[in-house]
Design a protein that fits this description.
Length: about 240
């Protein structure tokens, strides 16, 4: 038996995301007052994705309890739809986008923080909030993957959905630049047009890699789990 029930973990993670989002939106940052507001930052979009995902997980936990009590076929049908939506969000958005944000942020930060998170931001964003946005996302989503089996879509459809999201965000970033004349991230100001195209192409490929990695990790975790349970049954 787990030391902490998965339902309690999901509620705690959901509450932490609500806290992070509230503190982030309360920040008095000039960038939040310009065109696109917080929505031009992938970090904020990812936080919303994670919050929606864990809210759906908690809703499913509550619905499961009610379905067991009521034993209604209609409730079971609706519950299966919610589970299918949860698994799709996990596979296509929550894991690949969350892993992408953590990896790219800290890679650029360690190389040259001015490219992605200028030192000036330390005056606005406390360290704990920075880690809440750019660090804990990954362990939280891995905890969810470890405690609940998620059914992935076929790889072509999953990759198509991930790439659609990635290209959509790139186009949104370009539109913000078209309107304001300023790139969302400092790194884009420091490279030329051709390098920018290569940069965007590389990032699009990277988010696809994280989708496949999430699929493989999910299969590995649950294949191991099934094998372990089978061995225990045989041992008995």
């Amino acid at each position: 038996m787990a030391l902490i029930p998965s339902q309690v973990l999901r509620i705690a993670i959901l509450l932490s995301y609500f806290s992070i989002l509230c503190h982030y939106k309360a920040l008095d940052m000039p960038a939040h007052q310009t065109y696109g507001g917080s929505w031009k930052f992938l970090t904020f979009i990812d936080l919303v994705i994670q919050a929606v995902f864990f809210a759906l997980c908690v809703l499913i936990d509550v619905s499961s309890l009610l379905t067991r009590a009521g034993e209604s076929r209609e409730q079971e049908r609706q519950l299966r739809k919610l589970i299918a939506l949860r698994d799709w969000i996990m596979a296509v958005l929550a894991f690949p986008v969350g892993a992408f944000v953590v990896f790219t942020f800290w890679s650029l930060y360690l190389y040259d923080r001015e490219l992605v998170y200028p030192k000036l931001l330390d005056n606005f964003i406390p360290q704990w909030l920075n880690h809440g946005m750019h660090t804990t996302v990954l362990p939280f989503i891995i905890i969810e993957m470890r405690t609940t089996h998620h059914k992935y879509p076929s790889r072509p459809w999953g990759l198509a959905a991930v790439f659609t999201f990635g290209v959509g965000y790139i186009l949104w970033t370009c539109w913000v630049h078209h309107v304001t004349g300023v790139w969302v991230y400092p790194v884009l100001e420091k490279i030329g047009p051709m390098a920018r195209i290569a940069f965007f192409s590389g990032l699009s490929g990277l988010i696809g890699v994280f989708y496949v990695f999430g699929e493989i990790l999910n299969s590995y975790i649950w294949d191991q789990h099934i094998t372990s349970n089978t061995a225990k049954v045989k041992g008995e």
